[in-house]
Design goal:
This protein has 203 residues and is mainly beta. Helices cover 15% and strands 37% of the residues. It has 2 domains: 127 residues, NusG, N-terminal domain (Alpha-Beta Plaits, 2-Layer Sandwich), CATH 3.30.70.940; 73 residues, no CATH class.
Length: 203
C-alpha cells in the first residue's frame, strides 16, 4: 500500500467561507450555506492525512462541497488538574471522501491542506465498498459499544439479522465467537462488537 501524492499550493485551496456545524460522532460533516451541496455520486476513498489534521481536512473538503465521513470516538483525557471527555478520530491519520473518478475532483481533494494523498494500490486510488462505510456509519449512529481490533485477513463472514444492527456484516473473531469484526479493508483497520444475543446468518 502506498499513498498517491501531489504537490499542493496555496492558490489551489478553496477560499469560500462556510459556516460549519460541529459534527456528531461518526456522521458525515454537513456544510450549511445558502445552497447546500447535492449528494455526491461516486465511490468512497480513504485519504491519508497529516498527524492531527483529520478534522481540519474533513471540514475543508465539506467546504468544497464534497461528501466526507470522519468516524469519531469518545475517550477520556486526564491531566494533572482535570479530566475531559473528548472526541478523537476512530482511525488516526485517515478520513473518507466520496467522489466520482474525476481528475478535476481528485486534484481538488489533493489541493487541501493536510491531505497527504489517496490510499492507493498499484498506482490507483483504492475504492471502498459502500457496504463497509454504511455498516460503520450505522454502528456509530446506534452508539454500540466497540473496541479496536487487529485487522483480520480471513474468517467466517456473517450478517446480523434483526435488531438495530440488522444487515451489518463482518468476520467472526477466531478466538472469541461472540465478537464480530468490522473492517475497512483498504486501510487495514478493524473494530469489534459483541454479538451475544444477536441472530446471524452465514454469508
Amino acid at each position: 500500500m502506498f499513498v498517491e501524492k501531489l504537490a499542493r499550493t496555496e492558490a489551489g485551496l478553496n477560499k469560500r467561507s462556510y459556516a460549519i456545524e460541529k459534527p456528531e460522532i461518526g456522521t458525515s460533516i454537513p456544510v450549511w450555506s445558502a445552497t447546500p451541496p447535492q449528494p455526491q455520486i461516486g465511490e468512497w476513498f480513504a485519504l491519508q492525512t497529516r498527524y492531527r489534521f483529520e478534522k481540519k481536512v474533513a471540514l475543508q473538503l465539506s467546504g468544497k462541497g464534497l461528501e466526507v465521513f470522519l468516524p469519531l470516538r469518545r475517550e477520556n483525557r486526564e491531566w494533572s488538574d482535570r479530566q475531559k471527555r473528548v472526541t478523537v478520530p476512530l482511525f488516526p491519520g485517515y478520513t473518507f471522501v466520496r467522489s466520482p473518478r474525476s481528475f478535476a475532483l481528485r486534484l481538488l481533494v489533493l489541493q487541501t491542506a493536510g491531505v497527504m494523498g489517496f490510499v492507493s494500490f498499484a498506482g490507483t486510488a483504492a475504492e471502498i465498498p459502500n457496504k463497509q462505510i454504511e455498516d460503520l456509519q450505522l454502528l456509530l449512529a446506534e452508539d454500540v459499544p466497540f473496541s479496536l481490533y487487529p485487522f483480520l485477513h480471513s474468517g467466517q463472514r456473517v450478517r446480523i439479522r434483526g435488531g438495530c444492527l440488522h444487515g451489518v456484516e463482518g468476520l467472526l473473531a477466531q478466538r472469541d465467537k461472540d465478537k464480530l469484526v468490522i473492517s475497512i479493508e483498504s486501510i487495514q483497520r478493524s473494530l469489534a462488537i459483541e454479538i451475544r444475543g444477536y441472530e446471524v446468518d452465514l454469508i
